[in-house]
Amino acid sequence: MDGTHEGCRYTLHRNDFAAGPLARLWHVKFATTGFRTLEPIMSEVFTIESLDLEARGVARSDGKVVFVEGALPGEQVSAHIIRRKSSFDIARLDQVLKASSQRVEPLCPNFGICGGCSMQHLDAAAQVAIKQRVLEDALAHIGKLAPDCVLPPLHGPAWGYRHRARLSVRAVRKKGAVMVGFRERRGSYVTDMKECLVLPPHVSALLVPLRGLIGAMSIPDRLPQIEVSVTDQTTALLLRHLEPLAADDIVKLRLFGEEHNVSWWLQSKGPETIHPLLAEDAAKLAYALPEFGLRMGYRPGDFTQVNDAVNRSLVSRALRLLDVQAGDRVADLFCGLGNFTLPLATRVREVVGIEGSGTLTARAQASAAQHGLAGRTRFETLNLFAVDVQWLRDLGRFDRIMIDPPREGAEAVARALAALSPSERPRKIVYVSCSPGTLARDAGILVHEGGYRLRGAGVVNMFPHTGHVESIAVFDGG
Ligand SMILES: C[S@@+](CC[C@H](N)C(=O)[O-])C[C@H]1O[C@@H](n2cnc3c(N)ncnc32)[C@H](O)[C@@H]1O
Ligand code: SF4
């Protein structure tokens, strides 16, 4: 749907309703603005033109942009302003007056309170369409370009997909209550959640037992976080503790681990302090890439892709788009644990994996050796935000380049690639991104300054029901 056009047709000035039944609705709700002062909340009617990435409906009122929480494009809603800024206002939905055909009933009882999901009230296909539109808009407005073709979205399961999650823990001593879950959408409280539909069901079922466990420990208010890592064979829980645990706490953790079939890991300070509670759990954690006959060993706290099923499709698609050939020499930049490096090494002559974290490159190297791929892989630890064309030339010519940076993108890498002469360029570049804005910026550099061609771009539905946009793009070097 073209939001601007739809918006123009539907936009009604709120005063248009002044005399009708939809006249500014004075709600029975009252807001406390001082000790005893009660102010009526004034609802206004808005027509929603589009959706932002926090899944807020975007409307206009007297020329000012208003973000309406809980409203969808094409809807007429009544809402009240909760925050006024100089260039925009934020409003909260009171009533849907004319619903979008894409509105669905959110499945999770915590939706609206929990900050984990923002789009459950929107049909799943429409969520993906919106993300695709965000990607295309970013490429057009920031990168000043359009892909030759829009790649079909990559899908996986819409529920139970979060194989890695950081759960917050909050113990309220006075109330004797413990919350374990995601933070609330507004503010910093932990959601009072007893289930979560995007966590694998067996992890969701641990939320209530975990409350009991934390509450029974000696320092419940010094245990701020539990990081969950799930593989097809094991579930690891990494407990952050700000003070030493008592001997009795260790016993409780062991018993909980046995009863619920989870392995505990502990972290007292920085990432270097992460260790398994039981030594025999040290080597258990590994995710599978069955299409390539690989099991990638890792530890809680390492970067792994959140959605295991989508990651498998993503790796396969990246290799297809790179069109790898047996004799190729390939670079995998921001390689992490070797999620793309090792699959590539099963298909090509040589892969050079480069990454900023020495812990991850060491882990990737060990995985390569374990799979008999050491002879085809080489890893380097390097800050890829500070590289130039000379660095790239010194690495020797690559036939294909894989790039998978963090949110900040890969500007220095893009500039180095753009400065290569046509004969030095890789034939294909595949860029996986978690930020459409930085992808669009880097794509602009590759295309406008480097002469590459953006053959295709599409979304990867890695995080259903959230505003995160993961995407993949493929460039031809000539
Ligand atoms: C989105 S992850 C991708 C990891 C890997 N390709 C995968 O699929 O699991 C981005 C990676 O970039 C690394 N990274 C972040 N900043 C970096 C930098 N300045 N230089 C090099 N690597 C960096 C992170 O450690 C992380 O492993
Ligand atoms: S993250 Fe979990 S608990 Fe929160 S809204 Fe999503 S499904 Fe519900």
From TrEMBL:
Keywords carried by this UniProt record: 4Fe-4S, Iron, Iron-sulfur, Metal-binding, Methyltransferase, rRNA processing, S-adenosyl-L-methionine, Transferase
Amino-acid positions noted as binding [4Fe-4S] cluster in the UniProt annotation, renumbered to this chain: 108, 114, 117, 196
Pfam families: TRAM, tRNA_U5-meth_tr
Catalytic activity: uridine(1939) in 23S rRNA + S-adenosyl-L-methionine = 5-methyluridine(1939) in 23S rRNA + S-adenosyl-L-homocysteine + H(+)
InterPro entries: 23S_rRNA_MeTrfase_RlmD, MeTrfase_TrmA_AS, MeTrfase_TrmA_CS, NA-bd_OB-fold, SAM-dependent_MTases_sf, TRAM_dom, U5_MeTrfase_fam
Active site: 434
Function: Catalyzes the formation of 5-methyl-uridine at position 1939 (m5U1939) in 23S rRNA.
One GO process term, biological-process aspect: rRNA base methylation
Domain TRAM, residue spans: 36-95
Positions annotated to bind S-adenosyl-L-methionine: 305, 334, 339, 355, 383, 404
Family statement: Belongs to the class I-like SAM-binding methyltransferase superfamily. RNA M5U methyltransferase family. RlmD subfamily.
Protein name: 23S rRNA (uracil(1939)-C(5))-methyltransferase RlmD
Enzyme class: transferase
Gene: rlmD
Gene3D superfamilies referenced in this protein's UniProt entry, alphabetically: 2.40.50.1070, Nucleic acid-binding proteins, Vaccinia Virus protein VP39
Coiled coil: none
EC number: 2.1.1.190
Domain of life: Bacteria
GO MF term list: 4 iron, 4 sulfur cluster binding; iron ion binding; RNA binding; rRNA (uridine-C5-)-methyltransferase activity
